[in-house]
Write a structure and sequence with these properties.
Helix content: 10-25%
Shape: globular
Strand content: 35-45%
Oligomer: single chain
Number of helices: 2
Length: 73
Protein backbone atom coordinates (compact mmCIF):
# COMPACT_ATOMS: atom_id res chain seq x y z
CA UNK A 1 0.00 0.00 0.00
CA UNK A 2 2.89 2.39 0.75
CA UNK A 3 4.26 1.93 -2.76
CA UNK A 4 0.98 3.13 -4.24
CA UNK A 5 0.32 5.88 -1.69
CA UNK A 6 3.57 7.82 -2.00
CA UNK A 7 4.82 9.78 -5.02
CA UNK A 8 7.42 7.65 -6.87
CA UNK A 9 9.95 10.51 -6.66
CA UNK A 10 10.11 9.99 -2.87
CA UNK A 11 11.65 6.53 -3.24
CA UNK A 12 15.44 6.49 -3.03
CA UNK A 13 15.68 3.64 -5.57
CA UNK A 14 13.29 3.07 -8.47
CA UNK A 15 13.26 0.77 -11.46
CA UNK A 16 11.06 1.19 -14.54
CA UNK A 17 9.88 -2.06 -16.17
CA UNK A 18 8.75 -2.54 -19.74
CA UNK A 19 5.57 -4.49 -20.57
CA UNK A 20 7.23 -7.91 -20.74
CA UNK A 21 9.20 -7.40 -17.52
CA UNK A 22 6.12 -6.07 -15.69
CA UNK A 23 4.07 -9.15 -16.63
CA UNK A 24 6.87 -11.44 -15.45
CA UNK A 25 7.31 -9.50 -12.22
CA UNK A 26 3.55 -9.61 -11.48
CA UNK A 27 3.72 -13.40 -11.84
CA UNK A 28 6.34 -13.46 -9.08
CA UNK A 29 9.44 -13.86 -11.25
CA UNK A 30 12.76 -12.14 -10.61
CA UNK A 31 14.06 -9.62 -13.17
CA UNK A 32 17.68 -8.94 -14.15
CA UNK A 33 18.70 -5.35 -13.45
CA UNK A 34 21.81 -3.25 -12.93
CA UNK A 35 20.29 -1.14 -10.15
CA UNK A 36 21.76 -0.32 -6.75
CA UNK A 37 21.35 -2.98 -4.03
CA UNK A 38 18.43 -2.64 -1.63
CA UNK A 39 14.68 -2.09 -1.52
CA UNK A 40 13.45 -0.61 -4.78
CA UNK A 41 10.14 0.81 -5.93
CA UNK A 42 9.00 -1.07 -9.03
CA UNK A 43 7.26 1.06 -11.67
CA UNK A 44 5.47 0.35 -14.93
CA UNK A 45 4.73 3.36 -17.15
CA UNK A 46 5.38 5.56 -14.11
CA UNK A 47 2.82 3.73 -11.94
CA UNK A 48 4.02 1.90 -8.82
CA UNK A 49 3.50 -1.88 -8.77
CA UNK A 50 5.08 -2.58 -5.40
CA UNK A 51 8.46 -3.20 -3.79
CA UNK A 52 11.28 -5.42 -4.89
CA UNK A 53 14.76 -6.00 -3.57
CA UNK A 54 17.83 -5.71 -5.79
CA UNK A 55 20.65 -8.09 -4.96
CA UNK A 56 23.53 -9.22 -7.19
CA UNK A 57 21.95 -7.87 -10.39
CA UNK A 58 18.51 -9.35 -9.73
CA UNK A 59 15.29 -7.59 -8.77
CA UNK A 60 13.51 -10.04 -6.49
CA UNK A 61 9.74 -9.90 -6.26
CA UNK A 62 8.30 -9.12 -2.84
CA UNK A 63 4.61 -9.05 -3.74
CA UNK A 64 2.50 -11.14 -1.36
CA UNK A 65 1.71 -14.49 -3.00
CA UNK A 66 -2.02 -13.69 -3.01
CA UNK A 67 -1.44 -10.63 -5.22
CA UNK A 68 0.64 -12.39 -7.85
CA UNK A 69 -0.94 -13.17 -11.20
CA UNK A 70 -0.94 -16.84 -12.11
CA UNK A 71 -1.85 -16.74 -15.81
CA UNK A 72 0.90 -16.58 -18.43
CA UNK A 73 -0.85 -13.97 -20.62
Amino acid sequence: ALAMAMPPECAKRRVQLDDVQARAWLRGESIETCGERGWTLVLWKGMPLGWGKVSEGTLKNHLPKGLRRTEKA
